[in-house]
Amino acid sequence: MKRLLITRPLPDAVVAAARDAFHVTVRLNNLPMQSDELRDALRNFDLVLPTLGDVFDAGVFADVDTPRCKLLANFGVGYNHIDVAAAKAAGIAVSNTPGAVTDATADVALTLILMSARRAGEGERLVRSGGWKGWHPTQMLGLHVTGKTVGIVGMGRIGQAIAARCHYGFNMPVKYWNRSAKDLPFEATRVERLADLAGQVDVLVAAVPGGAQTHHLFDADIFEAMQSHAHFINISRGEVVDEAALVAALQAGKIAGAGLDVYEFEPRVPEALRKLNTVTLLPHLGTAALEVRSQMGMMAVDNLLAFERGETPPNQV
Ligand SMILES: NC(=O)c1ccc[n+]([C@@H]2O[C@H](COP(=O)([O-])OP(=O)(O)OC[C@H]3O[C@@H](n4cnc5c(N)ncnc54)[C@H](O)[C@@H]3O)[C@@H](O)[C@H]2O)c1
Ligand SMILES: O=C(O)[C@H](O)CO
């Protein structure tokens, strides 16, 4: 049997399915793998099932002369923590888990849109603090979401699921920025320049992958272009945002609020961001449901099984 390393505890059913086919070691630690562990994983296992935070960068591959590992079957759709080109050069394939994450992540985007626009986090803190003095007509007025325009940046699987929820559920006109035009089952306007989109919408949502091409896509210029009543939502990767520029925009009231599930240097969330009442902060909850995490794990196992049969994994990247 091939030796498989699962780098974090996963739902029982996933580990059981993996044990049916492989000699499995589960690393009983919820923190990302450290430098030595990453290298040892490549040296000592035939297959590795890593996840977010396990940073397999070019240096890791360069340090391991003849890796025993032949597949990194990532748990999650986003694989910006793996240098895929360096992996390939080292003879290691990479797969991910697209689709399994789509609806759950779109649901969290809608949670953030509503929480940010309707000041739900701020309201919850007010009640919890015992400081609420009762309802009155001008208390905590937020942005009415129904009918407002949403701008989706990255009209992929998750972007489309967010757009559909906004369109069908909240009657929101949809605009988007994407490398290519999308054929969608509802009306949506493609805008050529990101800064133009930013200036035209009431809610701007980041749904692009992380990586070098999208690093700091949302910078001071984009926040400057946004309308002062608009909200910025990020469910993609923290690194797509210049976090310092976002903090500055919020502090200066250039935008009304932000809803974030991801951060530039996770799990570190700058104190300046945590202090702002206009920000809703979630701890990377996009796929955090047992059903979803189980589906992600099963997809990763399917990729491993296909590879073991000598086939190309269904979700090789
Ligand atoms: N918050 C969470 O828990 C969570 C959960 C799942 C996924 N994610 C993130 O969401 C991302 C998107 O997932 P998906 O399944 O929708 O991916 P996808 O590949 O279906 O969609 C990505 C979209 O972004 C566009 N895009 C890619 N690179 C681009 C670039 N350089 N410039 C402009 N547009 C670009 C693509 O054309 C595509 O339309 C993942 O890569 C992951 O980082 C976060
Ligand atoms: O990329 C993904 O799938 C998520 O961020 C991890 O749940």
Give the topology.
Blueprint: E1 3-6, H1 12-21, E2 23-26, H2 35-44, E3 47-49, H3 58-63, E4 71-73, H4 84-89, E5 93-95, H5 102-117, H6 120-129, E6 150-153, H7 157-170, E7 174-177, E8 188-190, H8 194-200, E9 203-206, H9 220-225, E10 231-234, H10 243-251, E11 257-260, H11 271-275, E12 279-281, H12 290-308
Parallel strand pairs: 1-2, 1-3, 3-4, 4-5, 6-7, 6-9, 7-8, 9-10, 10-11, 11-12
The structure holds nicotinamide-adenine-dinucleotide (NAD) and (2R)-2,3-dihydroxypropanoic acid (DGY).
Fold and architecture overview:
Helix 1 (12-21) runs parallel beside helix 12 and helix 5 (102-117) packs across helix 7. With 317 residues, the protein is an alpha/beta fold. Helices cover 37% and strands 14% of the residues. It contains twelve helices and twelve strands. The chain has helices at 12-21, 35-44, 58-63, 84-89, 102-117, 120-129, 157-170, 194-200, 220-225, 243-251, 271-275, 290-308, and strands at residues 3-6, 23-26, 47-49, 71-73, 93-95, 150-153, 174-177, 188-190, 203-206, 231-234, 257-260, 279-281. The protein folds into two domains: 3-99 and 289-308, 3-Layer(aba) Sandwich (Rossmann fold), CATH 3.40.50; 102-281, NAD(P)-binding Rossmann-like Domain (Rossmann fold), CATH 3.40.50.720. Strand 3 (47-49), helix 3 and strand 4 form a beta-alpha-beta unit. The structure holds nicotinamide-adenine-dinucleotide and (2R)-2,3-dihydroxypropanoic acid. Nicotinamide-adenine-dinucleotide is lined by residues 77-78, 98, 101-102, 105, 154-159, 178-179, 207-210, 213-214, 235-237, 261-262, 284, 286-287.
